[in-house]
Write a structure and sequence with these properties.
- By secondary structure, the protein is mainly alpha-helical.
- The protein has 8 helices and no strands.
- The chain has 2 domains: about 60 residues, Orthogonal Bundle (Helix Hairpins); about 190 residues, Four Helix Bundle (Hemerythrin (Met), subunit A).
- The protein is globular, with a radius of gyration of 31 Å.
Length: about 300
């Protein structure tokens, strides 16, 4: 009996020792893993975004929109449906992708100073690319107007073209856009001094002036005495003013989204780059219109 009890005691002691050894081995492994992870972990201030389906969806939407547009213009069956599908996918991705960016900046606080520097640089490069875009249209306009060819009568504006006087709707639109630049600057300074009511008021006035500009531009198109197919003058005029009007529409949408975000307290006096980028874009639109008014409406006509 005594022998049996001693055997049991020895067996229990061996098991306890093995368990303690196993615990020690586990502790050593965990410590080494933590040490290794700390050595390989990269410490930086940048925001590494989570995996997202929106880039792929945006590519599918853009491809569907362009392909559907070509098929629709050539009257292929199903081209209009593919074009509408591409538009829907593109606008859906625009909403969801920017929704995620707003969530990261506002609620997750991922857009620190380093990230904002990168965003500012990206916005500057985007505006530079837009400058090059309009530079191409101004190049085409001056190339055709400074040395008019015999096909258009050797004069500028071409023969049989009735011009739009610069003192009418174009001058009114110039006043509207310059005033909108002043009101959006007022809203920017107001948000920097935490004057929310002034920010909202300035943005509302800016959006109203932008809407008035777009309506007058559409009225001018409806009553214009020439079309886009009337020589190189019509092509340059409608391409330049049309793309500028499209940029005005985009800028208006950006400022409207900023107005909604101001109302919902998404911005602070030091953290409002989404609003600031819209202001930069709007000032770019103003400057392009000044060049366009002077070159196309006043000097060119």
């Amino acid at each position: 009996m005594t022998f049996y009890v001693n055997f049991l005691n020895n067996s229990m002691l061996k098991r306890l020792r093995n368990k303690n050894k196993l615990k020690n081995y586990n502790l050593i492994f965990i410590k080494q893993s933590i040490k290794t992870f700390n050595n390989i972990k990269t410490k930086h201030h940048w925001h590494l975004v989570d995996p997202s389906p929106w880039p792929l969806m945006a590519a599918i939407g853009a491809f569907s929109m362009t392909s559907g547009g070509v098929l629709f213009m050539h009257r292929y069956i199903g081209g209009d449906l593919l074009l509408k599908t591409g538009f829907f996918i593109t606008f859906f991705v625009m909403y969801t992708w920017w929704r995620d960016v707003i969530r990261e900046a506002t609620f997750e606080e991922q857009h620190n100073a380093a990230v904002q520097r990168g965003l500012r640089l990206g916005m500057i490069l985007f505006i530079v690319s837009e400058v090059m875009f309009f530079f191409a249209f101004f190049w085409a306009f001056f190339h055709s107007s400074l040395s008019p060819v015999f096909n258009i009568g050797g004069v500028w504006p071409p023969e049989a073209i009735t011009i739009i006087p610069a003192s009418g709707i174009p001058l009114t639109n110039t006043i509207f856009l310059l005033s909108s630049g002043a009101t959006v600057t007022w809203a920017h300074h107001a948000i920097r001094i935490r004057a929310k009511n002034h920010t909202v008021t300035g943005l509302i006035w800016t959006i109203l002036l932008a809407t008035a500009f777009t309506c007058l531009q559409g009225f001018e198109y409806l009553n214009a005495p020439f079309t886009i197919s009337d020589s190189v003058f019509g092509s340059c005029f409608y391409m330049t003013t049309g793309f500028h009007g499209f940029h005005v529409l985009i800028g208006t949408c950006c400022l409207f989204v900023s107005l909604v975000r101001v109302v919902f307290n998404h911005f602070t006096s030091t953290h409002h780059f989404g609003f600031e980028s819209g202001i930069w874009y709007w000032h770019f639109v103003d400057v392009v219109w000044l060049f366009l008014f002077i070159a196309v409406y006043w000097w060119g006509c």
